[in-house]
Amino acid sequence: MAKLVLLDIEGDLNQGASVTLEIREQFRAATQTRQKGKLPPNPTLLEQYRHWQSLYRSLDFLFRIEDLPGQVTNFARGEAIAACQIAGEVLKDSLNNWLNTPSFRPVREKLLEKLMGDETIQVILQVEDIHVRRLPWHLWDFFERYPFAEIALSSPAYEKVETSANTRNKVRILAILGNGNGIDVAADRMMLEDLSDKAETVFLVEPQRRELDKWLWDEQGWDILFFAGHSASWGETGQIWLNRHERVTIGEIKHALKRAIARGLTIAIFNSCDGLGLAHYLENLQIPQIIVMREPVPDLVAQEFLQHFIAAFAGGKSLYLSVREAREKLQALETQFPCATWLPVICQNPSKITQNWQELTGKVLHNLTPAQPHAQLRKPLWGVGFLLGMTLVGTAVFQWQQAELQKKIALVIDRVVAAKTLFNSEQALEALLESLRAGKQLQNLPGVNAATRIRVVTALQQELDGIRERNRLEGHGKTVLRVSFSPDGEMLASASDDRTVKLWQIDGKLLHTLEHNDSVRSVSFSPNGQIIASASYDGTIKLWRRNGQLLQTLFGHKNKQVTSVSFSPNGQFLASAGGDNTVKLWRVNSTGLAMIPKAILKHRSWVEQVTFSPDGEILAAASTDKTIKLWRKDGTLLKTLAGHNGSVLSVSFSPDGEMLASASIDRRIKLWQTNGKLLQTIPAHDARVWSVVWRPDQGAFASAGADNTVKLWSRNGRLLQTFKGHTASSYSVSFSPDGETLASASADETIRFWHQTKMPTLPQNRAVKTSISFSGDRILSTTNGDKTVKIWSWDGRLLKTWQGLAAVLGASFSPDGQILASTIADKIQLSNKDGKPLHSWKAHEQPVRDVNFSQKNGKILASAGADNLVKLWRWDGSLVKILPGHQQAVNRVSFSPDGQLLASASDDNTIKLWGIDGKLRKTLEGHSSWVWDVGFSLDSQTIISASADGTAKLWSRDGELLKTFKGHNAGVSNASFSPDGQTIVTVSADGTVRLWSRDGYLLETLPAQGVGVWGGARFSPDGKSLVLASSDRIVLWSLDLDRLLERACDWLHDYLETNPFVSQSDRFLCQQK
């Protein structure tokens, strides 16, 4: 007898979960068995899943995306695959250990008691938490005992599906073959076409949105909706790429889908990229069964799964067993495609389960309509509230509000995770937009914990720090080959294989589309910016006004393709190059432009590009004959530059006219003097170099390559920056007149604007040690082993530098910010705010490692010495107390904000707590190596310590160990609290800075910016900034959500305003409060 198993899980991995088990006969409503259990908190399992997920997603060379040849070596692939497989095994073991905990054992034992190994079992996991849903439940060892069982995911709240009854001879399939760039969707189509005797399939190949809507509303209805192509999901949302220019979310087509479901749509199959977000939205529409891929899917895996699933399902097996059989057959691919068996996932509405293919035609569906109150499907609590009275109504409303709040918080977190994934995939604009959405949602959520806020603001800060793409212009239908800024910087012209030139406003708004009869290879503005010249494979050069009006069409390259066009600096001449192996020169006259017959410059092969020198006297031509030729305007050949090992595709003069840069199919850029002397050969790209152009300030040049990248180089050939984001060859680059913006054109049909931006950084001299201190007026102090103390304002201005102070090891402000205490060798020195020395004295017999003011009144100082002693002092240098007890050097001293305790950290592996009277109150033992740092929370109730043993520890005021923060791979040099005490920052010699919630949950790992064992990190007093100190600089991280959202909106302004694929809701995102 077939059985239905419902596992209802309420909770999450951080707090633990209650579990309710129900076992039913498959087609009977009544529950036969009910059992309750619990699963304990297991945040480690969540981290292990995220670790596996990050490793899996790093295998992007396997997925259903365009292959990037030459970018991943076999050795690197093997290492990455092995790491993913190992992480998968660790996750599997942890999952099963969790499911074997004593509190869950009653559920497990009831399953073993009531189920037989030869039964067909459908397991439905009803769970709301997105992280629990993502776990690889098919790896539960329960399924090893039951070979005819398969699991599906379901939302705990669902509605009975009402559909019309249709009887037909064949199953109806609506197959959407969306954007298939880099995907073999033709293979999916062939498999579906093989069902022609059993199914009527309508194929929509890269449909427009309106076409899809029309077919979804089809009066006959559909049984199966199938999609293959690019898609992506983020938490509870997702998108499918209908075609190269149009992406839609499920929400944007929900009305058409609802009608299709009402007319009998029973199964949706998304044989595409990660789709759990798509599935969640489809579940909300109450579609009965959905099959998606858990994560991005390799092309071969997607095809193999579809082939095996169709064979089993259309052959008469149940949907669940067909998925299990197809999934298990993927195991043969796992040496090449790790964790392939993890990918297919069923999502199920429990009220309607389709058993097999035959039922789709007859619609003999089994409705699980409960007969008894205790077996009813979970309903909203409104009805119960009315029955029990207004008190329970209030409770229900509160519970509903809390549930809604938690769902919104989960969506915020998932957006942050999605943003990171996008950012790591070089999709920076999409990543920043996703974080902006998260931040805007966070602004409107009450009672959000500090941990969630930290995750959002650090994501925003990292993306704002790392993003280089400023805008993306989309509108061409094929490869974009050339881009050129107007001289005034107000317009951009682009030339494309789609036979058009497009004129754009600098903000990305499309102004005009100018047409040729064949591919347009080049475009150039006249020096006054009023005329645009375009060159095409249709054999013509066209001259256009800035408003798009055609002025003149030039013929002269013997009906051959024209490859390049360029105006002279004075605007009196135009040079053109073509497939007839020549460069031709045209002169402006009263009627337009006319060819100069004698100025025909010949190469032995195609001329790819021609350009004038800055003084207009010399022309440089790059040719497929592997040379660059320099000519006078009268046709005199001055020089032939040979040296490239392949066709020369681009050439550019430096603005001072002293140098040329050339780019070649041989993957190299060469720098030349104009006298022909080769200066340098640069291995520039991993594939052919399509374009090279100098920046107007002469200090740098840029290149575009077939490896999809754009690169910025110094004048002497040093790589300054690599811009990544294009998904196909980068063909052309152009600088704006001010040199601030770089535009690139690509075979991915986009034009991208790139800017350089950096986090606020306070430069330092390289030194041995750096520490940080704050005063109440937001001035910070840094100290260096280079014998200096520097005082900075929060906007990055250097206010004061004191030099010649011997080896400064530490510094601290008095609470009122008026006095600075610094340690100099074995002395303590007090200075006023202006740097004037007030008093100094010998404090220890060995170097003083730290000094700190009492935070309550500031009249007492504590010092830490390498002589194992802690000492208390008055401002005048008189000794108050010697605190002996440490067995080795003391590294740090810290007063509690209430002034009642002093904590000291030592190389003897301990922290000691002292009363203000100097009496030892407690020794905190637990670290296994030197303790380098110690500090109090602002309320003085908790203490954080950092140690060379690689951990930080949280202690109560009375010395109880509350939490150990593990995860760093080397000693932790620094740890401190946020002002609200809810977040802890740690700095390690492993090169990372980590943010933790006080309960030990890792919130974020930040790029360390060079912070090492002698580095430091501190929150600003208002909690709105995080300061990271390294041996050579201070880095300011903003944690101010409002300010970060302002910056994100400023950065994305043009993209949101003008990009045609931005949704209407996102277009007004920055206007939302």
TrEMBL record:
Q: Which UniProt keywords apply?
A: Repeat, WD repeat
Q: CDD domains of this UniProt entry?
A: WD40
Q: Which InterPro entries match?
A: CHAT_dom, WD40/YVTN_repeat-like_dom_sf, WD40_PAC1, WD40_repeat_dom_sf, WD40_rpt, WDR55/POC1
What Pfam family does this protein match (any one)? WD40
WD repeats (start-end): 473-507, 513-544, 555-596, 600-631, 641-673, 682-714, 723-754, 841-873, 883-917, 924-956, 965-997
The superkingdom of the source organism is Bacteria
User: Can you give the residue ranges of the CHAT domain?
Assistant: 185-335
PANTHER family listed in its UniProt record? POC1 CENTRIOLAR PROTEIN HOMOLOG (PTHR44019:SF8), WD REPEAT-CONTAINING PROTEIN 55 (PTHR44019)
Which protein, by its recorded name, is this? WD-40 repeat-containing protein
Organism this protein belongs to: Microseira wollei NIES-4236
The organism's lineage?
A: Bacteria, Bacillati, Cyanobacteriota, Cyanophyceae, Oscillatoriophycideae
